[in-house]
Structures are given as structure tokens and as C-alpha cells.
Amino acid sequence: MSTPPHTAARGRPSRSRLYDLLEKGTYQGLVRTYAFDENRMLKGYDVFRYEVKGGRYAYAGEASL
Predict the structure, then answer these.
(1) Chain centre distance of CA 37
(2) Residue 41 main-chain phi, psi, to 5 deg
(3) pTM to 2 decimals?
(4) Which among 40, 45, 50, 51 is least buried, having the fewest CB atoms inside 10 angstroms?
(5) How far apart are CA 35 and CA 6, in angstroms?
(6) DSSP secondary structure code for residue 40 in this structure
């Protein structure tokens, strides 16, 4: 039995299939919902970075795209 062309080993999607799936979905992050446009770019412009300091999340500024 051969592996379908849209999946890689162990049932994981191929890179191109993953891009297609990301484009169609929305994803809930810690502070907002993320979605991608038809050019595979993040929709919206308010993306912020957080890092862990002393075991807690700390605001690290706006992320430049």
C-alpha cells in the first residue's frame, strides 16, 4: 500500500498540503486568533511577542512582519 501524495511518513501532511490547510483555517493563540490570506501571509497587523521570564509570560514588544 503506497502513501498518498499529500501525506508524508506517519500520516503527517506534506509541506505543500500543510500550507493549504493553514490558509483555510483559523487558530486560537494566547492573545488572539490567527488566520492567513491567499498569499500565505498573516491576516492583520497586530502581532506581539511574548517571552518567558522567571516562569511567567512577559510582553516583549510588537513583532515586525
Answers:
(1) 12
(2) -105, 150
(3) 0.41
(4) 45
(5) 22
(6) S
For 18, the enclosing helix (H) or strand (E) is helix 15-24
Pull the grid cell for residue 61: 514588544
The strand pairing partners of 56, in sequence order, are: 53
- Residues 6+ away with beta carbon under 8 Å from 51: 57, 58, 60
> Using CA of residue 14, residue 19, residue 23, residue 28, what is the dihedral sign?
positive
| Residue 14: CB atoms within 10 Å | 14
CB atoms within 10 A of CB 36: 16
Instruction: Indicate the residue type of 11.
Output: G
Tally: H helices and E strands in the chain: 1, 4
How far is residue 6's CA from residue 44's CA, in Å, rounded to a whole number?
29
